[in-house]
C-alpha cells in the first residue's frame, strides 16, 4: 500500500492520474516484474491521459453542444446522401487546422444539427475550442451585450474560438444590425479560425436570405469560398425512427377472458 504522506503529496500536487495509476499497479498481477522506468512511464502516461480527458470534458462543457453526438454513432445506412469518406475526412479535423469552413444543408429532420455536433465533439476531443449557437440566439445575445457594454468582449470571445458552429443559419429575417454583427464575426474569423453552419436553406439562396446585396457578398465571400459542403437529403430521421419503433396495440376486447364471458351471456338470462 502507498504510505499516507505519499498519497497526500500526490493530492496536493494534483497528480490524480498518477495516484490512480499507482493504485492500479498495486492491484495488477505481475506489475512488480516491470523495471522502474517502465512503471514510471506507465504512471506518466496515466497522468497525461487523465489531464487530457479533463481538458476535453471542460471544452465540451464550454461548447454547449445541442446534441450528445459522436462521429462513431453516425448512421451511414440511412439513405440521406451522407458521403462517408468526406465525413471521416472531416473527422480528422485537418480542415480546422487549415482554417477552412463547413456548410451542412438539407431538409428538416435529416440530421444536420446532429452531424454538426458530432464534428464539433470530435474537435473538442482533438484539443480545439468550440462554441455552438443557434444563429438567432447568438444575435440576441449580441444585442444584449451591446446594451450591457460587453459587445467588444463578446466579439473577441467569438473571434478566438477555434470552431464556431452556427445552427439554423439564414433561416430568419435579418435586420441591418444583424447583418453588421455577422460581418464583424466573419471578418474577425476569416482565415484565422473555422466556422460551421447548418441550415435548411440551400447555399444558392443564402444571398437572398441575407438581404443586403453588398453585405451578402462580403459575408458569403468569407464563408463559402473555402467551405466543405455537405448536402443531406431524404426523409426525416425522426420519421424513420418512429417507423422503426414498435407501435402500441390496444388489446382486443373480444378476445379477453372476463369481457368475452360477460358480453356472451346466454339468451334469456
How would you sum up this structure in a few lines?
With 269 residues, the protein is an alpha/beta fold. It has 13 helices and 5 strands.
Mean pLDDT: 86
Order of SSEs, N→C?
HHHHHEHEHHEHEHHEHH
Low-confidence regions: 253-269
Percent of residues in helices comes to 40-55%
Q: For the report, how would you describe the main beta sheet?
A: 5 strands, parallel
* CATH class type of the largest domain: Alpha Beta
Q: Any guess at the CATH architecture of the largest domain?
A: 3-Layer(aba) Sandwich
Name the strands of the widest sheet in spatial order. Answer: 2-3-4-1-5
CATH topology value of the largest domain: Rossmann fold
Textual characterization of the structure:
The protein has 269 residues and is of the alpha/beta class. The protein has two domains: 59 residues, no CATH class; 180 residues, Rossmann fold. It is built from 13 helices and five strands. It has a five-stranded parallel β-sheet with strand order 2-3-4-1-5. Helix 9 links the parallel strand 3 and strand 4. The longest helix has 28 residues. The chain is elongated. The C terminus is likely disordered.
Amino acid at each position: 500500500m502507498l504510505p499516507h504522506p505519499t498519497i497526500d503529496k500526490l493530492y496536493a500536487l494534483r497528480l490524480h492520474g498518477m495516484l490512480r495509476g499507482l493504485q492500479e499497479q498495486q492491484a495488477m498481477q505481475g506489475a512488480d516484474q516491470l523495471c522502474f522506468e517502465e512503471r514510471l512511464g506507465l504512471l506518466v502516461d496515466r497522468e497525461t491521459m487523465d489531464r487530457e480527458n479533463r481538458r476535453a470534458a471542460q471544452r465540451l462543457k464550454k461548447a454547449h453542444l445541442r446534441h450528445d453526438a459522436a462521429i462513431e454513432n453516425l448512421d451511414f445506412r440511412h439513405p440521406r446522401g451522407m458521403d462517408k469518406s468526406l465525413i471521416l475526412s472531416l473527422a480528422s479535423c485537418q480542415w480546422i487546422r487549415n482554417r477552412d469552413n463547413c456548410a451542412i444543408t438539407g431538409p428538416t429532420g435529416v440530421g444536420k444539427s446532429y452531424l454538426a455536433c458530432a464534428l464539433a465533439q470530435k474537435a473538442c476531443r482533438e484539443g480545439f475550442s468550440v462554441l455552438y449557437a443557434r444563429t438567432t440566439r447568438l444575435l440576441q445575445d449580441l444585442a444584449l451585450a451591446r446594451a450591457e457594454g460587453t459587445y467588444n468582449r463578446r466579439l473577441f470571445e467569438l473571434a478566438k474560438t477555434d470552431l464556431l458552429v452556427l445552427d439554423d443559419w439564414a433561416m430568419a429575417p435579418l435586420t441591418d444590425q444583424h447583418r453588421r454583427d455577422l460581418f464583424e464575426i466573419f471578418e474577425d474569423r476569416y482565415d484565422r479560425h473555422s466556422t460551421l453552419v447548418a441550415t435548411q436553406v440551400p447555399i444558392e439562396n443564402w444571398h437572398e436570405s441575407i438581404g443586403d446585396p453588398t453585405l451578402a457578398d462580403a459575408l458569403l465571400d468569407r464563408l463559402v469560398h473555402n467551405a466543405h459542403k455537405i448536402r443531406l437529403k431524404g426523409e426525416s430521421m425522426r420519421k424513420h425512427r418512429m417507423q422503426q419503433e414498435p407501435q402500441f396495440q390496444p388489446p382486443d376486447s373480444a378476445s379477453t377472458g372476463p369481457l368475452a364471458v360477460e358480453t356472451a351471456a346466454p339468451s334469456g338470462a
